[in-house]
Structures are given as C-alpha cells and as structure tokens.
Amino acid sequence: MVTACAAGSGDGSGPAGSSSPTVSSDEPTATESPEDPNTPTSWGPTIGEVEQAQQLVSTWSPDQLAGGVIVGRYHGTDPEEPAAMVRELHLAGVSVTSDNVTDRDQVLATTAAVTEAAAQDGRDFPPVIGVDQEGGYVSHLRGIATDFPHFQSAGLAIQGDLRTGRKVTRLAARATGYELRDLGFTWVFAPVADVTIGAADPTIGARSASEDPKVAALATAYAVKGYDSAGIVSTVKHFPGHGTATTDSHDVLPVVDSTLEEIRAHDLPPFELAIAKHAPAVMMSHLDLTSIAPDVPASMAPEVYDLLRDDLGFEGVTITDSLGMGAVGGRPTPALQALQAGADLLLMPVDNATTHQIIVDAVESGELSRARIEEAAARVVALQMWQARIAAKRPVPPDVVEQAQAASADLLSAAY
Predict the structure, then answer these.
(1) What number does CATH give the domain 62-415?
(2) Using one digit for the tens of pLDDT, what is the confidence trace for 386-400?
(3) Average pLDDT over residues 16-45
(4) Which of 312, 274, 109, 132 is nearest to 194 (CA)?
(5) Cα atoms in the 13 Å half-sphere on the side-chain side of 78
(6) If you write DSSP's letter for every residue of 220-281 in order, what string do you get?
(7) Cβ neighbour number for residue 248 with a 10 Å cutoff
(8) What are the catalytic residues?
C-alpha cells in the first residue's frame, strides 16, 4: 500500500527513503509513540490524509478504482463532454488542451462542470483538472492565461544571478499556479526537469531550463516550490529525462543508449532535487532506455519505477506521459502495462471507456491485483486532499492577473 513516511526521514542529506521501519507488533512499543496523523509526508499529504485515502479506496468497486487512475482526454469545447466522462466512468479527472478551449468564460464553465461532476460522483475532494502550461510554446491556455517565457529563461536567470534567478523562478511558478487555480485547475503538467543536449534534441529544447544538470536542477526545484506555495499540484517531467532523446516520442519510441552512470550524472539531478523539495508528482517518459529496460517504454518498465522510488526515494504520484503518443501507439494494452509496472495515473488514453473496461476486467480476473490499483488510487486521492487543503489556506489573490504579468516580466528581465 501507499508509503506514509514523514518528510525528513532518512539521513537528511537528500529525499526521504521509500521504506519504513517495521516492528514485530501492530501496537506501539513502550519506547515509541503513534505517528501524528498531521505529520506531512515527503510529497505533501499528511500521514492522516494518506490513511484516509487508503480507507476510502478500499471500499471502491472495480469500476470506481479503474476510473480513479485515469485522467481522460476529450474532444471539442462543450463543458458537458468531460463532465459526463467523469460522472459515468468515475475518472480521476481530465486533461484540458488547446483544442478544448475558446475563451476565459468557456474554460471556467468547463472546470466548474468537471468539479461538479466529481461531487455528483460522491467525492468530497477535487478532481484532477490538468493542463500543459509550461510557458513558451507549450502553453495550452494561450490568450486566456498570462504568457510566460519558456523554461530556459529560468535557467538563464539562475546562471546570471543565483539569488535573483531562484526568486524569479519561484515567483513565476507561484503566479502561474494561482492563475490556473483562478481558472479552476488543480494540476499543472510542469516543470520540465529534462536536461537538454541542445540542437540534437527535437522534443524538449527551450522547454528545458539548461544543458547544465545543476542549473536545471535548481530551476526545477524552485519551480516546484512556487507551484506548491500556490496550492496547485506540479508534475516534474519526463522521468528519467527526455533531453538526450534525438527523436520525438510524440511520433516514435526514442531509443536512448546512455549508460546508467550517464543517466545518473546528466539526467537525474533535477529529479533528485525536486524530490528533496517535496515534489508531489512525477511524469514518466516514453523512452526505450537500453541500459535499464531495453525495448520497453520507460512508462511501462518496472525497473524505471524502481529507479525513481527505490533509488531516488520518491513516494508521491507517478503519472504517465500521454498514452495517445506515437511512442506507445502500437502496444495492445499500454494503460494496463503502465499500471502493472507502477504507474498511479494514466494520462489521456486514446479511448477512455475502452481503457476503463480493460482495467476493470484485469482487476476482476486478477491480472491486475486489487492491492496495486488501490495503492495507485489512494496516492491520487491523498494528493487531491492535500491540494484542497492548501488551496483553502491560500486564496487566489484578487490581483492575480497583474501579479502574473509582473512575474512574467521579471523572469524575462532576469534572463535577458
């Protein structure tokens, strides 16, 4: 089940470990006291929220569990379309793209409809309503939310002056988070933790903070801090690092021949520091990592999830990259493979209803253990409880748009 380690466990030099001490009895010993349910985990929710989430999902039907691990895609701009999916399939939530939006009022109507649909489905925690809003050219709310420069600007700002760079990076993320919350979103699919190799990298490029792992690590970590402070769930992506891939996973499955040592030195530092700063969610890449799990997309390889959880100590929510991408398009049951490997959330399967039924069938047949899907669903529920609690404590400022515009200008100025 979900690990509920408190933040700060381990030796204090890095992210908390992924295993808890065991005792020979379920009852506290004479020298220890029960864990305080208000103690935060290393990824945000409290121990009590994790336990509450575990208890809740243990009562769910296979239909509810299957929905609870899917973030659906939808077509068109009618707010009722995603709302109906969330109600009928019990989806954890939806991903909103540029094809789903027209103007501010329509976005507000969409997020409100999805939120209400989750409530009608009996949930007292918010749904996952996510969007790719990285800044630069990956901004699906262009013309609706404030335009921010690409994430490379954060790296340039940090290289120019460390203190100023960290500050403007954090404040840009915070302002983005508040503005997204003002529009009804609960998740942002950012920051990009990939360390680009420059011109040979066709997918990430300026979406990456830097070609320097240390600079990219600082930018990623301070963005996470900014998003956290705004009460929105950030998503560090694309583990274990897409910046060295020389083909585009939107089209094909890129082959990355880096050794594990090269991956540790070049690609992992931004993820390691983000986890140390309590990153709540990590997005898994669709890459063929020949030194770790050859011929299997990283998002479907247990060895890659082990690297993230056992080696880096990550305890939060893992979410796949979009399951509609060309890199995984030819696989018969990519969603089920990802869940079996260790994914907690399945992002944008090609067909929500078909994917939902495949998972239900797998749970009922025992092909997918109930323990595995409960573990995944409980992490998601606990994180949404955290999001609701933090958002309630930190209301969106009335001048959120002005703050976002100022933060964007400050980031651009510090970079250039």
Answers:
(1) 3.20.20.300
(2) 999 999 999 999 999
(3) 61
(4) 274
(5) 5
(6) HHHHHHHHHHTT-EE-EEEET-STT-SS-TTTS--EE---HHHIIIIISHHHHHHHHTT--E
(7) 16
(8) 250, 321
